[in-house]
Design brief:
The protein contains 14 helices and 17 strands. It is an alpha/beta fold and 419 residues long. The chain is globular, with a radius of gyration of 21 Å. It starts with a helix and ends with a helix. It binds pyridoxal-5'-phosphate (PLP). Pyridoxal-5'-phosphate (PLP) binds next to helix 5.
Length: 419
């Protein structure tokens, strides 16, 4: 145990609120998929900062962008123009439009008109929860303006996770995370995922939006079924509701494409993003298209730090490197290989209830409550792993993950999960 780690443990217990049960390790350095602790020990990272470091640790292009901008200017507020913010909005509008065009051609079975980035408008904030808060405000204002003051309700999915701030928590479909903080903002209801009838029954004239994760992350990696999301899009169109997709965890090639909606052939009205937007710096964004893009007027919403030049420089470098290194293609290919190996592990051991996932966003659900022990045992063997509850191991590596690292993980799982 290094001195740095020992000091952190003592000070943490004395001065930090105990919102996290931290694992017994301190990471001081990273490179790609590798992390190093304060003793110089090396680990393979299958958590990627909970999906926030898709490019891998200490990517040189992001480091250079941060250093260059930090030496020039870090903050002046949203009252002024700064370098990188408008360019980042343009980059993201283009990325969204590319995914939207691909989704439309996929759905139509023929080439669709080329990407139209002019459809999209962006708002920058600092986190996933803030992006969700912005989306909720946008949807409510849109509902009021198009269908009257009563139109403010939002339907989300059971087991969903949308963040810890109060409205994002009210949107979250996990009573265990909500109960001690009541009363939460009203106007949210939750329906089982992939159950169209339940959703149809839950919406009425007061519903302004449906909010879904394309693949539920914190809930345990549960993808929307393609027919379900397509039907939700249709329902939203028929009933005049906005479709908001929470791509905080699925975005930035995690599932193989820039945004997960592309694979579903469904284009949302509003997209929330954060996590890997700036490869680990605190960044979030809300994007909307069409009429929804023009709902906010000056004074409606804001953020002191959102869209600052430092984070925007990092985000631009991140987005460029993700595309240049074709990490979406790697996420899709490596993810397929990982699931093949996990299925073989399941067949060999009989210890697996289900393997789920898309791209490099995967879960291994054990039949026994061993996921916590597996994650802790992994750490002792140089593997950074994350469990969701007692049964689910979530596998969320940086998108540079290759077959060799996957082999190391799966081979270790045989021993780590042995009775
Ligand atoms: N939405 C989803 C799908 C998430 O996975 C998360 C975080 O895990 C959030 C929202 C909240 O993001 P943040 O922790 O940046 O507020």
């Amino acid at each position: 145990m290094g001195d740095l780690f020992g000091t952190a443990v003592v000070l943490d217990s004395e001065f930090h609120m105990t919102t996290y049960a931290r694992k017994p390790v301190m990471f001081v350095r990273g490179k790609g998929m590798r992390l190093f602790d304060d003793d110089g020990r090396e680990y393979l990272d299958f958590v990627a900062g909970i999906g926030a470091v898709n490019l891998g640790h200490a990517h040189p292009a992001v480091t250079e962008a941060i250093c260059e901008q930090a030496a020039k200017l870090t903050h002046v507020s949203n009252l002024y123009h700064v370098e990188h913010r408008a360019e980042l909005a343009c980059d993201l509008a283009e990325l969204l439009a590319t995914s939207a065009a691909a989704a439309q051609s996929w759905r139509a079975g023929r080439p669709a008109p080329g990407p139209d980035s002019s459809q999209w408008r962006l708002f920058f904030c600092n986190s996933g929860a803030e992006a969700i808060e912005g989306a909720i405000k946008l949807a409510r204002k849109w509902g009021h303006e198009t269908r009257g003051v009563d139109c403010h309700r939002i339907v989300t999915a059971e087991r969903s996770f949308h963040g810890r701030t109060l409205a994002a928590l009210a949107a979250t479909g996990q009573p265990s995370k909500q109960e001690t903080f009541e009363p939460l903002p009203s106007g949210f209801s939750h329906v089982p995922l992939n159950d169209l009838r339940a959703l149809e029954a839950a919406v009425d004239d007061r519903t302004c939006a449906v909010l879904l994760e394309p693949v539920q992350g914190e809930g345990g990696i549960y993808p929307c079924e393609p027919e379900y999301l397509e039907a939700v899009r249709r329902l939203c169109d028929e009933r005049g509701m906005l479709l908001i997709l929470d791509e905080v965890q699925t975005g930035f090639y995690r599932t193989g494409t820039p945004f997960a909606f592309e694979e579903y052939g469904v284009v949302p009205d509003v997209v929330c993003m954060a996590k890997s937007l700036a490869n680990g710096l605190p960044a979030g964004a809300l994007a909307a298209r069409g009429e929804a893009a023009h709902v906010f007027k000056p004074g409606d919403h804001g953020s002191t730090f959102g869209g600052g030049p430092l984070v925007c420089a990092a985000a631009r470098a991140t987005i460029a490197a993700l595309a240049a290194e074709e990490l979406g293609r790697n996420a899709a290919e490596a993810g397929t290989y990982l699931r093949e190996r996990l299925h073989a592990f399941a067949a060999d051991t009989g210890r697996v209830a289900e393997v789920r996932g898309v791209g490099l966003m995967n879960a291994l659900e054990f039949t026994e409550p061993v996921a916590g022990e597996v994650a802790l045992g992994g750490l002792a063997r140089g593997l950074v792993l994350n469990n969701i509850g007692a049964h689910i191991l979530r596998i969320l590596p940086p998108l540079v993950c290759g077959h060799g690292e996957i082999d190391t993980l799966v081979e270790a799982l045989y021993e780590l999960s042995a009775p």
